[in-house]
Amino acid sequence: MNKRLPGTSDSGHADSSSQDRLRALWRLATDRSLDEMQKIDAMLETAAQAMNMETALVGEVDEHYTLHYLYDATGICHIPWQIPLHDSISHAVAISRNSLCLPDLSLDIHYREHILHTRFGFHVYVGTPIWVGDHLFGTLSFLHRKPKENACSQDDIAYIELLAAWFGQFLLQKQQREELKALALSDPLTALPNRRAAETRLAEEFARARRSGEDFAIAICDLDRFKLINDHYGHETGDIVLQQAAAILHGQMRDGDWIARWGGEEFFIYLHKVDGTQAFSAMDRLRQAYALHPITTAHGSLNLTLSAGVSVFSGGDKTITRILAEADSALYEAKNAGRDRVALHQTAQRGLLWHAGELQSALQDERIVTAYQIMVNLSTGESVADEALARLIGKTGRAAPAAEFIEAAEGLHLIHLVDQSVTRQAIMRCAARLDAGATQDFAHFVNLSPQFLARGDLVKQLLEHTQQICSSCAVTVDSIKPLVFEITERQYIANFDLLMREIQPLLDSGFRLALDDFGSGYSSFLYLAKLPVSFLKIEGWMVANLRHNLKIRDMVQSIVDLSCKQGITTIAENIEDAETAELLREMGVNWGQGYHFGRPQFDTLTA
């Protein structure tokens, strides 16, 4: 309902000029050649002229009146402009929720002393509310410096209310776009910026630092052993822990620093205007904050620890990719050194440190290749299997053994990609050998990490690929496949039921399972009891010390006897000499692997 004050008139019907100005607004509203600001400017100017007014304003009302958009032929008004709401005539519109027409402020008892009249010389005010959905956003107002006896007609009121409705719809769509953008750039669990937002902001910080010559540092942080919390208490508790962990870090930020959720249990922190020493101190302070703030859950208090890798930018030719790779590498160093610590990337690190960028480059360039080491039947001396071993071919042509990069690949969360590359190569080699006349009884062992098995999409791709290959090799679908997948006893497995679900599709398709490094940890027999193992590989350290340590010999003998009762084939690793091979044969070990039988060799069948 419109509130009409004295001085308004009613024309009784919409004349042709009213129709013309409505069509003008419609043309502007649907003109796709104009961007948002051009459209707003054009519509305010058109409306002001149609209303015979000098100024058109769109302002927001809350505790203040804040001007957002304007057309002003007088040059008096400007943006930004904010005044207390009670000092604004829009206050009356906001309270009444109706349109308001004041033909001469100098004659109005309420507004003749208003600043619009006394200071700026305006006489006429016409305003109407702008609604954004069910919320009163503000007002659309028109001003003129000369009094008007007939300031606005009923058609004028309808006209400005239509324009106000358009602004309400425009502002609603703008608000929705901003909310969607915020959702796309925010982590819903912690309310922190997500990785996409962090990467965008880091690019801006990087460009600014290059222009200004200022130093900065970044840190990638990881909550230590967070997976155990999820596995033991459930994901609901895990989410609560992540929320509180994020809040603790966020509460420790200095002015100018910022934090984002990098993914999973990882956080990204930007530290402005710091050198290496200052960055290390700042991150170590954050690490210690967890000792002072235990996490509260329904299961009691949990003490978190944090590992962090820090990289510093101080000019030079560093790129964002390199800075992130350095922080990733430093985080791996912190985790590998025992966790609950901060590692600062140094330009001269030990030769065994492989940066994320180097590993990614090798994967992209297909420089992760496989060498194969033979296994023999200790009773007959016959070659019965081989193992695919990853090698990284450097840009100089040197082949780096797995010991130099596999642990780094695990720490940098790239091991599943290494597994995928090696597995594909092993499958192709298996097919090539079968085509060349090899028997299906010859086994090919391939290592699979828990990270690979946890990726259902990668397991599905592996099955699809092997089914295609098997169909061309005359290997029946339901038969036992030549491929054997190894999982290592060194890798902690918290949830055997989950692991079984992950590997079951492979077992159902005829692939067999081998347990590698048996005897290297405390849970060897638990792994053996829980998993459907066909092959058991005895840990190399035990094999190397077998001849000179009676206790170790007895331990190996117990493993062999148990495996024999369970129908499990035993394989001794790291056999270096004939004497050890003979002793293992006498003890009943089935197969052997090591330099005594052959070193890893690159294959020519699939080259």
Q: How would you portray this structure in words?
A:
With 607 residues, this protein is α/β, with parallel strands linked by helices. The strands form four sheets. It has an eight-stranded mixed barrel, surrounded by five helices. Strands 3-2-1-6-5-4 form a six-stranded antiparallel sheet, with helices on both faces. Strands 8-9-7-12-13 form a five-stranded mixed sheet, with helices on both faces. Strand 14 and strand 15 (383-393) form a beta hairpin. Helix 7 (226-233) packs antiparallel against helix 8.
Largest sheet: 8 strands, mixed, barrel
Lateral arrangement of strands in the main beta sheet: 14-15-17-18-19-20-21-22
Task: Tell me what portion of residues adopts beta-strand conformation.
Answer: 15-25%
Helix content class = 40-55%
Give me the count of strands. Answer: 23
Output the radius of gyration. 37 Å
Termini distance?
83 Å
* CA-based shape: elongated
The overall pLDDT, averaged over residues, is 85
What structural class results from the helix and strand content? alpha/beta
- Spans of at least 5 consecutive residues whose pLDDT stays below 50 are 1-14, 347-354
Please count the helical segments.
Answer: 20
